[in-house]
Amino acid sequence: MHVFYTDEENISLTRPYAKRARKLGIPVEVELGRLEGGEAGLRMISDAELTDPGKAEAFMKGTGAVILAPSIGNLHGSYLNPPNFQPCASASLPFLAQPEKPTDDKSDMVWRSELTIAPNTDLRLILVDIVEPTAPTGVESVAIKADLTDEGQVDGLFTSRLGMPDTVYCLHGIMSRGAEDNFDLGLKARTFELLALYGGPLPDVITPSTIATPESAYGLGKLASELFINEYTRRGFIDGRILRLPTIVVRPGPPSPATSAFISGIIREPLQGHETTCPIGESLDSSALDLPLWLASPETTIANLAHAKHILADQFPSHSRVVCLPGFTTTVRDEISALEKVAGKEALALLKFKDDPVNRRVVSSWPARFDNMYALGLGFNVDEGGMEPIIRRFQRDHLQEKSVVTPMQ
Question: Which of 10, 75, 189, 265 gives 35 a disulfide partner, CB atoms 3.0 to 4.6 angstroms apart?
Answer without folding.
Answer: 75
